[in-house]
Amino acid sequence: MLTPQLVPQLADAALIAIIAVVVVLIAGTAGLVVARNRRGGELPAATPPAPIETAEPTVGEDAEEPRDTPTRTLEDTALPELEKPESAQGRLVRLRARLARSQGSLGKGLLALLSRDKLDEETWEDIETTLITADVGVAPTQELVERLRTRVRVEGVGGEKARTILREELIALVDPSMDRSLNVDRQGDKPAVVLMVGVNGTGKTTTVGRLARVLVAEDKKVLLGAADTFRAAAADQLQTWGERVGAPTVRGPEGGDPASIAFDAVKRGIEEQADVVLIDTAGRLHTKTGLMDELGKVKRVIEKAAEVDEVLLVIDATTGQNGLTQARVFAEVITVTGLVLTKLDGTAKGGIVIAVQRELGVPVKLVGLGEGADDLAPFDPEQFVDALLD
To answer: Structurally, what CATH architecture does the domain formed by 88-174 represent?
Structure first.
């Protein structure tokens, strides 16, 4: 039992125990410090923490130092420079030389036959064969030969005279009286609308892109419509053509409704006050009735917003008479206002120009002669014939 006499004694004992524990702890800490000093020297002085109010968040090493260049705004950023298409005159000179290389054999062959000392029936048959082989067509060939026979009897031939007669008759056959101008001028508050049609592989999308370059070179504001929704990457290809010259492209989902996309393109062209809207359509076999009928639908839907000023049928000149068959079918489905002959430099059968015009009563307005971006030019009958005879 705890008595009053034991209380002071217990208090003194507890105080002594506490003092002993403190002494032990101090001695242990001092020993630890001494041991560390023996192994690695003195401990570095502790760095006081930075005040919270002055701390700045940093990201990466570069953030520790101030930027030595001013911040760039969107206006300061240089955009890719647009390409400047070649002028029409420059294209014509270059393309005429290229056409002469591919078609020169036709003109030289005809001149050689007409320059013979004696033009007998066999010679005239050779002239007919040469023209038909060049895809001029039977009826135009017979007409040309008959006119040549008449002039030779009246005027005679020889040297330069033969060339003059042949040149004049070929120009007449190509028909310079046809209106080959493109209807690409704004009508009131609406842009001109050009619809590009043709079979697969004739080069429609490329032709649309090249035509956009021609029109931009004439300072026209152009907008493209990617209504070919069935060929993979067709819209991407067209958009790339447009980006090179600053012509925006209206496109839709792959497999979407071509008529809807064409309508949206024309509507946007009206809103943005474009001068010309060029619509690329899907290539279609002339034997596929459903796809051909769809062209009529595309045209009708477009006309709810604006008139279609041009329907250009693209024909691959290397296909010869097959191209003529295609042209007939397209003309039955949609009103064609002009023809574009592509790859004319890839064939010696330039007579397709004459044959297809005679068949449809529609002028060749543009010709493609090569793979370059500016290898598209207006068709000129006299320059075409001169290229044949050069």
So the answer is: Up-down Bundle (1.20)
Q: What is the pLDDT of residues 57-85, one digit of tens each?
A: 333 333 334 444 444 443 443 445 677 77
**In whole angstroms, how far apart are CA 36 and each of 25, 32, 124, 388?**
17, 6, 119, 102
pLDDT of residue 298: 92
| Domain edges within the chain | 88-174, 192-381
CB 377 within 8 A of CB 369: yes
- How far lies 137's CA from each of 19, 129, 352, 361, in Å? 127, 10, 8, 14
What pLDDT is recorded for position 369?
80
Bridge partners of 143, per DSSP, are none
Higher pLDDT, 349 or 151: 151
Q: Greater confidence, 241 or 41? A: 241
How many residues in total does the chain contain? 390
Tokens of 197: 């049609």
3-state secondary structure of 192: strand
CA atoms within 13 A on the CB side of 315: 36
In angstroms, rounded to a whole number, what is the distance separating the alpha carbons of residues 1 and 20?
28
For residue 100, report the phi and psi dihedrals to the nearest 5 degrees.
Answer: -60, -35
Beta 376-378 vs 222-227: how paired, if at all? unpaired
Q: In degrees to the nearest 10, what's the CA dihedral of 341, 345, 346, 349?
A: 70
What pLDDT is attached to residue 20?
57
Structure tokens at 348: 């010696």
CA nearest neighbour of 310 among 175, 174, 197 = 197
Q: Whose CA is closest to 170, among 88, 102, 103? A: 103
- Which DSSP string corresponds to 240-306? HHHHHHT--EE---TT--HHHHHHHHHHHHHHTT-SEEEEEE----TT-HHHHHHHHHHHHHHTTTS
Phi/psi of residue 359, nearest 5 degrees:
-65, -45
Tokens of 287: 């034997």
Query: Contact at 8 Å (CB) between 349 and 132?
Result: no
* pTM of the full structure: 0.75
Comparing CA positions, the residue from 241, 245, 249, 206 lying closest to residue 224 is: 249
Averaged pLDDT for residues 96-116: 76
**What number of other Cβ atoms are within 10 A of residue 201's Cβ?**
11
- Name the class of domain 192-381: alpha beta
